[in-house]
Amino acid sequence: MNSLRLRIFLMVFLVVVVAVGTVLVFASRGSVVAVQNFVGLSAAHDQQVAVQLLSDPLRTGNAPDPQVRVQQVGQALGGASADH
Description:
The protein is mainly α. The protein has helices at about 1-60, 65-75. Helix 1 (about 1-60) runs antiparallel to helix 2 (about 65-75).
């Protein structure tokens, strides 16, 4: 009788371990893909903003002070402005 209880316990334990492991694997993969997509989109957006802000003076022929332009790029990308 004791051996039957032990077998049932081990089978239930094994099923729980496999189920939890499966959920963790799929959740981990989904999280990794979501983070990669977010980082990729964020980097692409930042690059687009920086290119536009830095290339505007080349098109118009009006080049502001480089420090001012760097501050504008930083603010557009969500950075804090530093006054030195």
